[in-house]
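Re: Re: ligand-bound prediction request (bumping)

Still looking for help on this. To restate: I need the protein modeled with NAP bound, output as structure tokens. Inputs repeated here so nobody has to scroll up.
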Amino acid sequence: MMTTAAGRVAVVTGANKGIGYFIALQLGVSGIFEHIVLGCRDVSRGEAALATMKPLLPSTVKASCLPLTIGDSQSHLSFRTKLEELLGPPAKVDVLVNNGAIAFKNSDPTPFTEQTKPTLDINFRGTVEFTETMLPLLRQAGKHTRDSRIVNVASQSGYLSQLSPELQQQFASPTLTMPELKALIDQFEKDVQAGTHISKGWSNSNYGISKLGLIAATKIWAREEATNQITVNASCPGYCDTDMSSHKGPRPPEEGAKNAVLPATMENPPTGEFFSDLKVRQW
Ligand SMILES: NC(=O)c1ccc[n+]([C@@H]2O[C@H](COP(=O)([O-])OP(=O)(O)OC[C@H]3O[C@@H](n4cnc5c(N)ncnc54)[C@H](OP(=O)(O)O)[C@@H]3O)[C@@H](O)[C@H]2O)c1
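Reply:
Sorry for the wait, this slipped through. Here it is.
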């Protein structure tokens, strides 16, 4: 386990319900954070979650909720500003768990081509941009404790082999840069709009490509942020009983949450890995 440190702060996005709620709760009861901050796009839902969570936390652990809409640049910046005010100087974040995401239901009548942009904007582009906004605070923690962490809640749906061998090679390249990854994801969107994504080697899953992109981003940050003492891992909670799965998943969300809590709290975490069923798995 991470050693206890006074002032250790964890931020969890999309924490008002489902898996994110339990990630925040479990980080809070772990005894290794002093302050848990829930990022929620609807503050009233966030405050309600906080009211349920607080009695379950040790009395020494502070929990707060701040408004955060992933995919809205202004909201990302205002979240950081409000967080800095809340924490006071020198503000730092020890653990960021990027959990908030969307998935269109199979029954949703929105055409596939119209689901692409909103899915990528939240699950990939917004999550990447929000993380970039938070990196100065994570680096600050890395400087002080030499142990700062990002956990990206991805999915098995982001598996690499859904791509053609050529695209697999590009996404898994150990020299892939963030601008190159963003361009690849933009290309997927263009190919979907042109009706050519299948023939060009992409899968037929907006959600799958959004999570694949997030796993690729995890590996890039793991390489780039190593010197800043930040480990970056991705996780899959498994098929869980939440609103996202229309409660069809068999796994309780508190069990799924453990796959993000493990890399967020374990001693000597690896970096750039993908956790599923509480083990490091091949992408
Ligand atoms: N459930 C599964 O079987 C499963 C499987 C694999 C991976 N996952 C991943 O696990 C994570 C949690 O999923 P879940 O099942 O707990 O989903 P969920 O019950 O639908 O909860 C999603 C959370 O994300 C928030 N959110 C969505 N869009 C947001 C945005 N733009 N900005 C800020 N917050 C946003 C939601 O807020 P609102 O309450 O305001 O909507 C909610 O708090 C997601 O990353 C998901 O892709 C889930």
